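All the exercises in this workshop are built on plain-text protein records. Sequence and backbone structure share a record, each on its own labelled line. The question running through the whole workshop is how a given chain folds. The record below serves as our worked example for the rest of this section.
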Amino acid sequence: MGRIRRGLALPLALLAAAATGPCAAAETLADAWRLALTNDKALAAAGSEVEGARAAERAARSARWPSLDATGGYTRLDSSPALEVATPGGPVFRSGPIFRDDQFVSGGVQLKLPLYTGGQVAADVDAAHHALLGASEEQEAASSGLKLAVAEAYVSVLRTRRALAAAQSSLESLSAHAGDVQHMVERELVARADLLAARVALANAEQQRVRAANEHEIALAVYNRRLGEPLGRSAELDERISADVALAAMPLEALVARALDARSELKALVARADSLASQSHAEAAHALPQVALIGAYTHLDNQILDRQDFSSVGIGFTWNLFDGGRARQRAAALRSAGRAAQERLEDLRASIELEVRQAWLDVHEAQARVRASAEAVAQAEENLRSSRELYGVGLATNTQVLDAVSLEVNAVSNRDNASLDESLALLRLSYAVGAL
């Protein structure tokens, strides 16, 4: 039986050291977040969308400033016209060709300052500003979502690593037990059926170890993918996961209120609805009069007029009296899109409230499981110790020992899973309330 104890001692000690002992080179969850936020392409795309929205806002604001246009051209005619003036006395005055050699060059500069646009410029600026706010909030939401996804992958690696350690521990324990049964069979102390059962259990344990090793490699590849690192990178993760335990102690109603006030997804959708409303006002303004102050300088090559350069200043007025209903219909379409955004906003609020409630309940469930599993592990260890001693003196069966090994492995796995589930539930609660 000493060989069984030695077989269990080493892997269990390694598992305990991994679970409690700090490692100087271990990669923490904060390290993982930094890598992911630096390398994630979707987050980089969200940042580019923010820059695009910021440029669009600057463009909308620039419509308030004067615009300066320069024009120029060269024209050749088949025959240059002449100036002909009829006088009351009858003779007709006819000049020579207006343009020399049937060709002329013209050019000009026009300065235009909008005085009244029916509110179009102000509405465009407001729409662009809310679009920028929405893009910024969507970037924050993408960052929080990425951090949660990385945390889930991080916990998955820890979970599979603990499962692999438990599978290895079970394998070594059963291997030692099979060796003890072999010696007892050789001395004809137990039936050969005990040895067969021990070897079958050992083979099953080997399969569990292989499966656990494969799941750990897959989890590590998924984790590296989230971080933008090579999939085959080996990483030693810190078992300690920093989470805000105080959130779980807050009343559920307070957490829901905090989430509805802080979640970036809600703010982004509100900004989108406001932007659509402003766009609708801008479209409706196309049907109103447009007034602008215009200053111009014009050059026209000619042989008749007393000069070739002209300056002017005036007020321009345009009013599109009929456009087939295009502006009105575009404004109606944008109003409908704004109403749709408001409906989605109400649905999102309900979803977030459910998300907060579920995460809060998961935290309390995991905490209860942690307390229960700690007691179960102690009882399973005592059961295994007792079963081995009884089997060594012929007062217990081989099946009892195998069951005791299985019970202890399950108890340890349940304890580890409960601890990781608590950390993950706390992180999900932080995300749900907008604090991640």
